[in-house]
Amino acid sequence: MSLLDITRRHFFHDCGLGIGKIALAGLLAESLPAAARAALPSSPLAPKPPHFPGRAKAVIQLFMAGAPSQLEMFDHKPKLAEIAGKPIPPSVIGGQRYAFIRPDAAVLGPQFTFARHGQSGAEMSDVLEHLPQVADDIAIVRSCRTDQFNHAPAQIFMNCGFAQPGRPCIGSWATYGLGSESRDLPAFVVMSTGSGISGGAANWSSGFLPSLYTGTRFRNAGAPILNVDSPAGADGRLAADTLDLVAELNRRRLARDGDPEIATRIAAYEMAHRLQTSAPELMNLADETPETLALYGCTPGEASFARACLVARRLVERGVRFITIYHEGWDAHSGVAGNVKDNCRKTDRGSAALVLDLKRRGLLDETLVVWGGEFGRTPMVEASAVLGRSQGRDHHPNAFTMWLAGGGIKGGVTYGETDELGFHVARDEVHVHDLQATILHCLGLDHERLTYRYQGRDFRLTDVHGHVVQGIMS
User: Domain count of the chain?
Assistant: First the structure.
């Protein structure tokens, strides 16, 4: 391309600054029928063989943004009750610094009663009313650790393996590695049921991978994607003729410039046209039985975390590769007991129902469910008269809990252990990169072989770290 051919329009689109490109990128994860795509070398989302046979075909990530308190739900520490109100020993703290509390802050005891559940004897608090039903189907990992202690970088690190925006997220890596099974829906879908996500769109960005692999944001009620439907007065013939004309113009520009983003744009228009039919059908829960709706505790047409979980199951049934549901609001700097109780009321039933529903439909073995936030909460109390805070817990990167189910994960397992105060990992540490390596492994992807060359070197999700957590694999 000569300098004379570079226009402001070309700069607007191809430098990634345009509204059009941002909107289109989210629609790119489309797929033709498998046989047709296999014959098209220009279709990067054609289904690809994994590195080895994986148990999971799809992932549903339940991201509890804001960081839930593991000490109120999964990691019972009677010692905290014994020394509540006393400063935590300086030898435990070491050089750890916190944003809102002093190192000598007093210990806060567990706010709920714990009990054992299922044949596995999994220990959970009584704030979780529904999850104990699937105690023998999930693996609880109590020994997670991250490198980040603020929300945005920790969320991006959990998703992208790097704390700064610009790297591909795990959903993008999965679709890059395996392609898509879906004909009429994006391969990677993102939903949100809260007030905001600290890390923003960087959490589902394709980074330096082609924008084809960016997550598509769906709304949780009404039309899942705005401005997909044809405007009033435009019949099907007019819409088809318009798409044909735009496609022809784009094909001519592609032949002239060879820019792969133009091919992506063509695919985006085609996907948008198919979404006019597939998206309303997906979000219409009229064909779900009353028993299923009651299981999730959701009302058709009413936005909720439970509804998003039910839609996630429907997405898996339609061949979508990766689904992330963000539920924000777990940042309990004050009133940790009320915060956990309120958020469990919103999410506990839907999370358990998702596992139960996938299992009864024969989908759990091939669907990996991952639940957790970006870090944990401190054993010490956060209290500040100036900030109006009391009985809260600060950010804690050293130790937190997540759980996984299905897709190659061994159910009824409690893995890892923290010290008696829940401050440090005492046994079987699981770093964020280990968790990412394990998720990819369940999909049949070797995290060390799944690479992309960018700016002269090969990148991968786990950087130069990560080991599969064999202790939770079935």
Answer: 1
